[in-house]
Each structure stands twice: as structure tokens, then as C-alpha cells.
Amino acid sequence: MDSKSLRVGFMGAGRAGTALALALHHKGYAVSAVASRTPASALALAERIDGCVPHAKAQQVADDCDLVFITTPDDAIETVAKELRWRRGTWVVHCSGAKSAAVLEGAREQGAMVGSFHPMQTFPGAGGAGVELSGVAFAVEGPPPLLETLKEMAHALGGWPVEIRPQDRALYHLSGFLACGAVITLLAEAAGLWKVMGYSREQGLEVLLPLLQTTVNNLGEQGILASLTGPISRGDVGTVQRHLDALESQAPSVLPLYCQVALGTVALAREKGGIDKAKERELVGLLEERLARARGLFVG
Ligand SMILES: NC(=O)c1ccc[n+]([C@@H]2O[C@H](COP(=O)([O-])OP(=O)(O)OC[C@H]3O[C@@H](n4cnc5c(N)ncnc54)[C@H](OP(=O)(O)O)[C@@H]3O)[C@@H](O)[C@H]2O)c1
User: How buried is 8 (Cβ within 10 angstroms: 0-12 exposed, 13-18 middle, 19+ buried)?
Assistant: First the structure.
């Protein structure tokens, strides 16, 4: 069956569901039904897609579609799959990064074919439109022919499919957290230091954003080691010492985070060849001592 003639349905008209439904619709897929916990959410999405019917009950989406994406929060996926009646042969797919298709066992037991389709991308807003999917990796999972269709969809959206072993799902997902949520946390801490300097966090972010953007570009163009700059990569121990002193006196809550991240940076600097073994030992000793002191573990 041509995948463009599949009747595609969505359960959960939130951030990811809205973005994926719109993106698939724009690529010519027949997104034909949607349901959500709140009828208004389903209606808002359906109004943006010609031929898409908002349903009050998820069961109607299960009854009317060939391929159903469950785009509820992760914790609701298993219950939604279990509580509905599935026609034999229906394709049921969730979009969680952390979970494998095993959580759809309730649908599989009824004869559905189950899989997962997770874009390694962030959808922060409910609007869903304009989210960049080109170049995005999609973790795809499922038996054939569902798997082939999900791979085809990943390519149609401008991305590419990647297969992750079920036992690696948590690592796969947390790699995304480190590259997205953790970066936001780091930026919040970095921008927050500007409050200590008499500016707002927003002003700090404005100062730091061009630096972050160039760093991201460098990573894409040159890779990890070539993008590494700064005092640790040069072995400037005195500058690191000044950072630690400033944090101890002006922003002690940031000190443990700085030390942990800096220890990781020391390892990268060594891998890059920017510092020798002796400098590595000196930096690690300094950072570990300050980290222990910050945690109140230092004795002597
Ligand atoms: N956001 C991202 O960046 C992102 C990226 C990749 C993958 N994902 C995955 O996509 C899935 C959805 O995440 P999200 O960020 O889009 O969450 P979200 O914005 O909270 O949207 C979830 C939607 O599901 C609806 N819902 C909740 N419980 C439901 C139920 N029992 N039955 C039917 N609908 C229900 C919600 O309620 P209302 O109808 O009340 O609005 C909401 O519209 C998750 O598996 C997540 O891991 C998210």
C-alpha cells in the first residue's frame, strides 16, 4: 500500500502531535483524524488540516485510521493503547524517545502492528508549525512493513531514520536531554550570573546567544575537538583559579556545576592535545578540591 494513501490519525494534539501532523500533512500524507483529552485541542489541530476530522473519543480515531500516532505524554501511552479496541492489522505507533514499542503491548495483543517514531527534535510551542525537521534523526522501530513506512516518512519529512536497540532507548533519549534541556540549564546559569553583575538574565542571554550560535555552527562544521576553545583547552590554570574564586565569593551555587563541567572539559582538552599530562593533573586536582569544598566534604 502506498503510504500516502494510509489514513493517518493522531491521539494527543499537543506539541509533538501538532508539529508531526502538520509536517506529514504538508508532505502529502492523509492526516484524517485526531482526538485529544480536551476536545478543543483536537479541534484546533483539525482546523489546520484539510480533511482531518476532530473526534471526541480516541476510539473513533482507532476505528477510522490505518496508522495511529499516540502523541500523549509518555506516561499515558500504555493506558491509551490498552484501553482501546484495535482492528487486526492497524498500525499503532508512539513518539516517545525513552520508551520502546513494548509499551504498546496492549494493542499488539489485539492484532495491531506496533512501533515507535521519535524525532530527535524539540517542539516547545503548541503552534507546531515551522518546526525544523530537515536533517533530523528519527528513531524508528517496528516490524516490516511498518518499519519501512516509518523510514519512508522520516525521509519524506527531510530527516533520516535511525534504529536503536530497545535496551539503548534510555541512553538514546538522555543524549537528547544533554544536547537540549541540559544546554538550556547551562545557559540559564550562565545568563543568571549577569544578575550578580547588575543586569537581568534576559540581558545576559542576549550577550551570550551569539557565542552559543557560533559554537553550534562550529560543532556542525568542525566537530567537537576543533570547536573547543577557552582557558581549559589552553591550560590557563590561573584563569580557572580566578573563575573558582569568583564563584566561591559571588555565586557559590554555580560552583559544583562549573567544576563538573570543567572536569569534562579537561578530558576533552587532553584528547585534543591542548594540554599535557602534568597540566591535566593540576587542573583536575584544583577542580576536585574546590568541588569537594563546595559540597562541604573537604576536611583538613
Ligand atoms: N515536545 C517535544 O519536544 C517532543 C519531542 C519528541 C517527542 N516527543 C514525544 O511526543 C509525545 C507528546 O509529547 P508533547 O511534548 O507533545 O506533550 P504535550 O504537549 O503535553 O501534548 C500531549 C497531548 O496529549 C493530550 N493527552 C494527554 N493525556 C491524554 C490521553 N489520556 N488521551 C488522549 N490525549 C491525551 C494532551 O491533552 P489536551 O488534549 O488536554 O491538550 C496534549 O494535547 C511524548 O511521547 C513525547 O515524549 C515530544
Answer: buried
Within a 13 Å sphere around the CA of 115, how many CA atoms are in the beta-carbon half?
25
Q: What's the gap in Å between 90 CA and the centre of ligand 1?
A: 21
Strands 53-55 and 67-70: unpaired
Q: Is 58 in the pocket of ligand 1 (CB under 6 A)?
A: yes
List, in order of start, the domains of the chain with CATH numbers: 3-166 (3.40.50.720), 178-294 (no CATH)
Specify the pLDDT at position 269.
98
- 256: Cβ contacts below 8 Å, ≥ 6 apart: 291, 294, 295
Edge-to-edge strands, sheet with 160-162: 53-55, 30-35, 7-11, 67-70, 91-94, 113-119, 137-141, 160-162
Mean pLDDT of the chain: 96
List helix spans (H) across the chain.
15-26, 39-46, 58-64, 74-83, 105-108, 146-156, 169-179, 181-196, 201-222, 224-227, 231-234, 237-250, 255-272, 277-294
What letter would DSSP give residue 38? S
Interval 139-196: pLDDT, tens:
999 999 999 999 999 999 999 999 999 999 999 999 999 999 999 999 999 999 999 9
13 Cα to the center of ligand 1, angstroms? 7
Distance 26 CA to ligand 1 centre (A): 21
Does 72 contact ligand 1 (Cβ within 6 A)? yes
Give the nearest ligand 1 atom to 15 CA: 16
CA distance 151 to 137: 10
14 Cβ inside 6 Å of ligand 1: yes
